[in-house]
Amino acid sequence: MPTPLKILVPVKRVIDYAVKPRVNKARTAVETSGVKHSMNPFDELSIEAAVRMRESKNPPVDDILALSAGPAKCVDVLRTAMAMGADRSIHVEIPDAGQGQAELEPLGVAKLLAKVVADEGRNLVILGKQSIDDDSSQTGQMLAGLLGWGQATQASKIEIDDSDRVTVTREVDGGVETVRFPLPGIITTDLRLNEPRYASLPNIMKAKKKKLEKKSLSDYGVDERRRLKTVKVEEPPPRKGGGKVEDVDGLIAKLKELGAI
Amino acid sequence: MATTCLKNVLFNRRLTASSIKSSRPSYLLRPCPAAQTRWSSATTEPRQPDADGGTKGGPSTQRYIKYTSESYPGIKRDNKFGKLSKAHVKFFKDLLGAQSAVIDGVSQDATDDLEPFNSDWMRKYKGHTKLVVKPGSTDEVSKVLKYCNNNMLAVVPQGGNSGLVGGSVPVYDEIVINMSRMNSIRGFDEVSGTLVVDAGCILEIVDHFLAERNHIFPLDLGAKGSCHIGGNVATNAGGLRLLRYGSLHGNVLGIEAVLPDGTVMDDLSKLRKNNTGYDIKQLFIGGEGTIGIITGVSILCPQRSKAANVAFFGLESFDKVQEAFRAAKSQLSEILSAFELMDGQSQDLVHAVTAKKRPLEGQYPFYCLIETSGSNPDHDSEKLEKFLEHVMGEEIVSDGVLAQDETQIQSLWSWREGIPECLGHWGGVYKYDLSIPLPELYKLVEDTRERLTSVGLIGDDEKHPVVGVVGYGHMGDSNLHLNVATRRFDTEVEKKLEPFVYEWIAKRNGSISAEHGLGLAKKAFVGYSRSETMIRLMKQIKDLYDPVSRITPLLDCLMTNYTAERYHEPI
Ligand SMILES: Cc1cc2nc3c(=O)[nH]c(=O)nc-3n(C[C@H](O)[C@H](O)[C@H](O)COP(=O)(O)OP(=O)(O)OC[C@H]3O[C@@H](n4cnc5c(N)ncnc54)[C@H](O)[C@@H]3O)c2cc1C
C-alpha cells in the first residue's frame, strides 16, 4: 500500500516575470515598491504538480499545504495557490523593512521549512528550482540536507510508484537523467514539468473559505540572521545598440570601417 | 477610400486587357512587410490557395495571390494617369538619395522586393506596382506628391500594410508611398501627456516608449507590431481600448499632412481646445489617405494604469453575454477597459491552429474577455471580486478564470487577439466589420451560418469551400467582426454573402464598416450606410482636396456608384 502524501509547497511572492526589474536609487536592491508582484513561476509549477498528483489519486494525497514567508501581501499568492488546488496555507509574516532588507536567505527559509515539515508531518516537499528574483537555487537542496532526505532537482517528470519510490526525470546538458529516491523526499521543479492551470472563478471563491494560518518566525524559533551582505546591485551594461545604415553602400562603408571586409 | 484618392488618382483604370497580360500570376515569396516584435503581430499571413487553387500540403512559404485586377476585372485603370518612366524614377532617386528609399522595378526586375508592398495582409489583394518610394521627411513627402500631381502619376499611401479592406496596396501601377522611414518620436510632454510622432512610427514601439514614461497609447490592436500611427489615424482604427479611452477623433490633437498637390498642412496643434473655425484635421482621421498623406500626429496619451486584471468567461447564451456586459458596466464602471466577445467556434478554430491549452475546462457557445485597469490595485480587486461573485452567483457566467500574473494576462488576450491570424490558416477569410445594435449583434452570425449551411457550402473537407462562420469583436462598442473562414476565395460563397450581409445591416441602421474603413473592399457598398446627400458631401471634399483625381462619374471613386450597382465583379 502506498503511503498517502502530505505535500508542502512553499510559494514566493516575487516581481512579476513580465516586469523589467530596475535597480533602486541606492543601488542596494531591485526596486520593489509600486511594481507588480505575482507568484514565482516555478512555484506555480510546484502547485500544479501537487494538484495533479491528487487528481491522479495514485498514490492518494492527504493534504496539500502551501506556505509563504514574507510581507502581508503574500496572502495574495497563497490565495492563488489555494485557488489552484492547495487545501490550506500558512503565512509566516515577515514585516517588510523596505529595500528587501527583511528578506530571508535560502538557509533561513530552509530552516523554517524543516520546522514546518516536522510540525505538519510532511513526507514530500515540492519547491521551484529557483525563485526568479534572486535566482539562488539553493533552498531545496539545503532543506534536503537539513532533513537528511533524498532530493531530485529540476524535475521535468515525476512518477511515484506503489512502493513509495519517486522517479524523477531531469533535463541535463545533452540529454535526460532519471533519478529515484524513496519517500520522504524533496523535488524541485523545472519549466517543462507541466503547464499550470488558471485559477477558475469557482475555485477562487472556494479558496476564500480555505484555512489560512498566520504565523511568525518566532513561532518556529528560526534564527533568521543574515549571513550575507549585499555590497552593490548594478544593472548589466546597456547593450551597445547596432547603428543604422541608410543603404547598401552605407553598410559596405561601415563594414570596411570596422575592418570586417 | 483607402488608397484612394491619391490613389485613385492614379488609377488609370483603363489598362487594357493586353497590357495586363504580361503580369502573370507567379509563385511568390512570403512577404514580410514590416518588422514586428510580438507574436501576435499581424505579419503572419493566412494561407492562400496555391497556383492550383488548392491549399493542401501544409503551410508553405510560396503562396499565390491573385491580382486584384484579375479578381475584379471591372476595376479599370484610368488612362489619364501617366505611366512610369525611367525619368520619373531618376527624379525620385535624386530626391530621396538613399538606395533603400526607392525600390525600382521600372529599370530592372524587382518583383521579389516589390511583393510585400504589392499584396495585403489578407493575401486577398495584389497590385502591379513597379515603384515604391519611402520618403524620410515631410518635405520629401511634399516633393514626391507635388511631382506626382504635376505628372499625373497615381499613388497609394502605405503604412504598416495591416489594413483589412485592401486600401493599403495598389491595384494597377500606382506608386506606393511607404511611410516606414518616417519613424521618429518627435517629443513627449509628461505633464500634459501630449505625444508628437512621425506617421511611420510603429504602434507597439510607441506604446513601449510611453510605458517607460508611465503613459499608454489610447489605442491597442492585434496588428500593433506592424501598423503605423499614421495608418491608425488614416483608418481611424478603433481597437481594444476604445471603450475606455474613446476614438481617435477625440484623442488626436493635431495632424501634419501633405495634400495631393504637395501643400504641407501644418495643423500639428498640441492644444486640447481650439475652437477657431472648422476642425479640418478630422477629415484626415478615417480619411484613408484619400485627401492627403499624414506625416505627423500629436495625440493625447492617458496615464498608464498601475493595475490591470483580465478575466475570461464561458457563457451559455448571447442573452447571458448581454447581462454580463450590463453588470460589468454598472459594477466596474470606470475601471472597465475592455469587453470583448468571442463565439465558441472562433475559439475552436484558434485551438485547432495553435493547439494551446484552453483557459476553461468546458466548452461554451460564447466567451468574453474583460479587462479592468485602474490606479489602485486594492480598489480594483475589491470591485472586481464583487463583480465576479455576482456574475458567478447569479449564474450569468457558467465558468471563468482570472489571470494571476502578467503572463497569464497576455495568454488570455491571445485567445482574442489571435483570432484574425488563426482564421486565415485554411485559406482566405471574408471579413465583415460591422456596427449593429447590441440586442441583435450575434443574430447576424447565426443567420449567415444558416444561410451557408443550407446550401451546403460549409464542411470539414476540401470539397466545401467554407471552414466556418465565426463572430467576435468589441462587444463594448457594439462592433461585431463576422468572419467566414474559407479554404479558398470562392464566387459561390461571395454571392451568398453579398449583398446579403449589407442588406441585413442596412435594415438595422448599422454600419457596414465599423472600424476598418472602406478601402477597396467596402467602397462600393457605402450606400448601405450613408445617404445620397452624405456621399455627395464626401465627394465634394475629395474633389476640393484632390482636384486632379476628379473623375468621370462612371469611374473609380468610392463615392460614385454608391447605389447597389457594383462597378466591380465578384471574385
Ligand atoms: C491582426 C489584425 C488586427 C486588427 N485589429 C484591428 C482592430 O481591432 N481595430 C481596428 O480598427 N483595426 C484593426 N485592424 C486593421 C487596422 O485598420 C490596421 O491594423 C491599422 O489601423 C492600419 O495601419 P497601417 O499602418 O497598417 O495602415 P495600412 O494598412 O498601411 O493602410 C491603411 C489605410 O490607410 C492609408 N494610410 C496609411 N498610412 C497613411 C498615412 N501616413 N497617411 C495617409 N494615409 C495613410 C492607406 O492608404 C490605407 O488606405 C487589424 C488588422 C490586423 C491585421
Automatic annotation (TrEMBL), chain A:
SUPFAM superfamilies cross-referenced by the UniProt entry: Adenine nucleotide alpha hydrolases-like
Listed InterPro entries: ET-Flavoprotein_bsu_CS, ETF_a/b_N, ETF_b, ETF_beta_N, Rossmann-like_a/b/a_fold
Cofactor binding note: Binds 1 AMP per subunit. Binds 1 FAD per dimer.
Pfam families recorded: ETF
GO cellular component, one term: mitochondrial matrix
Assembly description: Heterodimer of an alpha and a beta subunit.
Species for this entry: Alectoria fallacina
Statement: the UniProt record of this protein carries the keyword Zinc-finger: no
Function: The electron transfer flavoprotein serves as a specific electron acceptor for several dehydrogenases, including five acyl-CoA dehydrogenases, glutaryl-CoA and sarcosine dehydrogenase. It transfers the electrons to the main mitochondrial respiratory chain via ETF-ubiquinone oxidoreductase (ETF dehydrogenase).
GO biological process entries: amino acid catabolic process; fatty acid beta-oxidation using acyl-CoA dehydrogenase
Locations listed in the record: Mitochondrion matrix
A molecular function (GO) term: electron transfer activity
Protein name: Probable electron transfer flavoprotein subunit beta
Family in the record: Belongs to the ETF beta-subunit/FixA family.
Boundaries of every Electron transfer flavoprotein alpha/beta-subunit N-terminal domain copy: 27-224
Major localization class: mitochondrion
Entry keywords, A to Z: Electron transport, Mitochondrion, Transport
SMART domains registered for this protein in UniProt: ETF
PROSITE patterns: ETF_BETA
Gene3D superfamilies documented for this protein: HUPs
Cofactor: AMP; FAD
Automatic annotation (TrEMBL), chain B:
Record carries keyword Oxidoreductase: yes
Substrates-to-products reaction catalysed: (R)-lactate + 2 Fe(III)-[cytochrome c] = 2 Fe(II)-[cytochrome c] + pyruvate + 2 H(+); (R)-malate + A = oxaloacetate + AH2
Main subcellular location: mitochondrion
Cofactor field: FAD
FAD-binding PCMH-type domain ranges (all copies): 125-304
GO cellular component terms listed in the entry, alphabetical order: mitochondrion
Any one GO BP annotation for this protein: malate metabolic process
Cell location: Mitochondrion
Keywords carried by this UniProt record: FAD, Flavoprotein, Metal-binding, Mitochondrion, Oxidoreductase, Transit peptide, Zinc
EC number: 1.1.99.39
Homology family: Belongs to the FAD-binding oxidoreductase/transferase type 4 family.
PANTHER family named in the record: D-2-HYDROXYGLUTARATE DEHYDROGENASE, MITOCHONDRIAL
Name the record gives this protein: D-2-hydroxyglutarate dehydrogenase, mitochondrial
Lineage, top ranks: Eukaryota, Fungi, Dikarya, Ascomycota, Pezizomycotina
